[in-house]
């Protein structure tokens, strides 16, 4: 664990405002470019996916985490290490399904949406939809297929921001030709 | 002590990178055959070790040695495999291989958007940094 702490200590930090505003500019541009909120959501998810597949390597290398044995452990690492490391917040993991294959991440304050007010006419826009893509991409790289959606968004007047994560299946290792 | 060569494989078994510092023999086959052969062997050893282990045997394959050389193996949870051949005097180098992953692969490949992730590595920056890093190792 010592390596994990030192990695975080010398990790370069940038102002979260710069990040938040850059993300805001990105969303504003996408809203301009696309006709519907759904198309913007889809694009954000796609971009997040591409970020996620790279970000996971950084998380694993810097955080020095091993392979998770169950979804609870995964949820813990996402919340306490992933969100902490890249966004500086720790969401609450809660609302487990009885089969333990679904959980929710509750964000008290969403760093992406710090200075944002949704204009009317964009009721279907998931402003922070990039997070869904990031999680999906990152988890796919560790052989987990998941489905992620926003069930609550503080920007749309809900009490909190809630991301629902649903485990679909474990992706199997590719077997080299000629092996069993 | 000596480092002979390094292989980096991705999850699908494609050899992303190969470099040799000090290889004295040639194995009489095209490189791509050699990569396939090595990856197949690593895959088999891994499942062999896991199945035969009397206790929880996950991730327990870290190296093997013959009377001439030692092969070190490190696998990340994302399925990247780092393989380094050294002489017999080298001890456990899991940390070294993790460092190569953390300080070289992540920094110069993952964080370079122009480098595709599942294709053989062309970046000369990566090549230089890895070379420097390995040459600075105490057991090089």
TrEMBL record, chain A:
Membrane spanning stretches: none
Any Gene Ontology CC annotation: TRAPP complex
Gene3D superfamilies: Trafficking protein particle complex subunit 3 (3.30.1380.20)
Protein's UniProt keywords contain S-adenosyl-L-methionine: no
Superkingdom of origin: Eukaryota
InterPro entries referenced in this protein's UniProt entry, alphabetically: Bet3 (IPR016721), NO_sig/Golgi_transp_ligand-bd (IPR024096), TRAPP_component (IPR007194)
Keywords: Endoplasmic reticulum, ER-Golgi transport, Golgi apparatus, Lipoprotein, Palmitate, Transport
Main location as per UniProt: endoplasmic reticulum
One GO biological process term: Golgi vesicle transport
Subcellular location: Endoplasmic reticulum; Golgi apparatus, cis-Golgi network
Quaternary structure annotation from Swiss-Prot or TrEMBL: Homodimer.
Stated role: May play a role in vesicular transport from endoplasmic reticulum to Golgi.
Family: Belongs to the TRAPP small subunits family. BET3 subfamily.
Designated name of the protein: Trafficking protein particle complex subunit
TrEMBL record, chain B:
Keywords annotated in UniProt: Endoplasmic reticulum, ER-Golgi transport, Golgi apparatus, Transport
Gene Ontology biological-process annotations: endoplasmic reticulum to Golgi vesicle-mediated transport
Entries under SUPFAM superfamilies matching the protein: SNARE-like
Gene Ontology, cellular component aspect: endoplasmic reticulum; Golgi apparatus; TRAPP complex
Subcellular localization: Endoplasmic reticulum; Golgi apparatus, cis-Golgi network
Gene3D superfamilies, A to Z: 3.30.450.70
Pfam families documented for this protein: Sybindin
Family: Belongs to the TRAPP small subunits family. BET5 subfamily.
Assembly, per entry: Part of the multisubunit transport protein particle (TRAPP) complex. The heterodimer TRAPPC6B-TRAPPC3 interacts with TRAPPC1 likely providing a core for TRAPP complex formation.
Protein name: Trafficking protein particle complex subunit
Protein's organism: Paramuricea clavata (Red gorgonian)
